[in-house]
Amino acid sequence: MSIKLITKTIIKSYLIPVLWIFLISLPIMGIVRSIIVAACVLIGLLLFNIFIKGKGQVFNFGKHRFKPTLYFISRYAWLFILVISFILPLFLNSYDVDVFTSVLFYTMLALGLNLLVGELGLLNLGYIAFYGIGAYTYAILFSKFGIGFWESLLIGGVVSAFFSLIIAIPTLRLKGDYLAIATLGFGEIIRIVLNNWNSLTNGPNGIMNIPRPAIFGFSLATGLRFFYLVLVFVVIEIYILYRIKGSRFGRYAVAIRENEKASEMVGINTYKIKTLYFIISAFIGGVAGVLFAAKQMFVSPDSFTFIESVYVLAMVILGGMGNITGVVLGAFTLVILPELLRGFVVYRMLIFAILLISLMLYRPEGLLGKKA
Amino acid sequence: MKILVQQIINGLTTGSVYALIALGYTMVYGIIELINFAHGEIYMIGAYGGLIVIGLIGANHISNIWTILLAMGGGMLLSMAYGFTVEKFAYKPLRHSSRLSLLITALGASIFLQNFVMIGQGASDKTYVSLPLLNSVLNIHGVSISLNQIMIFVVALIIMLSLYIFVNKTMHGWAMKAVSEDPVAAQLVGINVDNIISLTFIIGSGLAGIAGVLIGFYYGIVNFYIGYLAGIKAFTAAVLGGIGDIMGAMVGGLLLGLLESLGAAYISSDYKDAFAFIVLILLLLIKPSGIFGKSR
Q1: Which residues of chain B neighbour A169 with C-beta distances below 8 Å?
Q2: What structural domains does chain B harbor?
Q3: What is the pLDDT of residues A62-85, one digit of tens each?
């Protein structure tokens, strides 16, 4: 390469972008912080060109390119994760246990959503509504009728599934993005109703004093015990999902995702399968919601906003759609990451956003997803 | 009757703003089939752009009209710059990946911009100057229209007309339509697809920026999170009119504004935000492609 070409490349792919970023962040950030932003962009560009655009050219050993052995990990990870997650919390303080409980909640949700997004390829942008319905079912059943946790667990799931049926019957006939938009609308309507139906949901103030459960007189009220309760549910859920995935229905779903017309031709009732998946996924969301209400001992509409739906979706996509281990990893990453960044205070979410974008640029198919 | 007319006027005012934002959604969706989550934030940045320009020039030194024009220009330029940059950094590298991964980077861009502005400008509300010109109110048979509302309506109308002319009568507009029909074929006939996509982002963002400044003058307060709700509403408006269709976005925006203000006045103001979504779902069931959309 000639000197002239190198200078040209440097100017074009580094100098101009960095100056441009400096210029546009000037009005919002002021001079000092804009210089910092520009410096970060410079570093980012260097990293991007080395790792993402060059696809790991740094690790290029002759013919054999370095590839992360993620596929291997994904096959045996479950055993490892299971053991770790049973033992680890014993050594953590109560705050960290809470964080890991929240990982479990998001895992439940992400796996439930994965049934639709990953297995069937249906985009649901209002999934958090089912979580909300489950949580509020328990809260209302307890505060109005004194019904306990274990009964509510089942009722919450069923109510949630019932609502999903209402939304599924008409909207499942829609295609692709229109379904996504209809579910988005549904999620927003549920949140607005929760926010405004004062006599039933106590409006924006939410419902307080929801009890944590006990089993055979053994209280599950402490953070650690509750963690194990949720963990048991997550394990059961993962087991069931694996069974579904390996069953006839799981194969139907994959067939529908890959080619809906062709699967109809070979006699699969696509509408029925989709509705079934919708119901199962909503049931999972509802059960998770009841658990969540018991964990928080308080529900308010703020926990069930659109951005939460998107957050769960991000976990599914980041982990690798359709891959159960991947989705668990996605949920773990997206909950733990902001916690690790807690030391950066106000810069926390900023860095989180940058990492989210970079991860997607690095592996567009998700951490454990298959390459298309 | 007076209430009805008053509500229609208020509805058209907010509706014009929704329409301006919806245009950006619909243009981007039309061209790369992406639900651009960051678009609401681009609108918010426009509002801040106007604010920053007003702060720089000092509203007392020059006439009100110049203040408005400069604020709009500033907001528009800043939004354009950010829209362009977001596309280059977060969307372009993923042009050939699945649309879902694009959705996630869009989400990341949205979180990023919100926090970026929060850090740069502070988390508290910022107030726009209150201009005497805009505050004057016309009273016609008991129905009051402020000059501010007239300004929003007129500006939105001018912009929509010029956009319509741009898309239908100029080479670049045709190229844009061609790319949204079939990017590969467009490339084959010699259209630079990358440039057209950038152009689409720039125009859409500019419109959102102007909408941000207009809303800044109208409500008087801006904050770093205003993009979220406005974004969802505008997106709903875009779908209402038929996503990907420019006329549809304009009509959808106005319709949504009307629905909201009439619903709030005659049914219940608590559920104001829900009407939009109920109508949206009903419409999707009857005619999924929206009012103007072609059925696919």
Answers
A1: none
A2: 2-155+193-286 (1.10.3470)
A3: 344 444 455 555 566 667 777 888
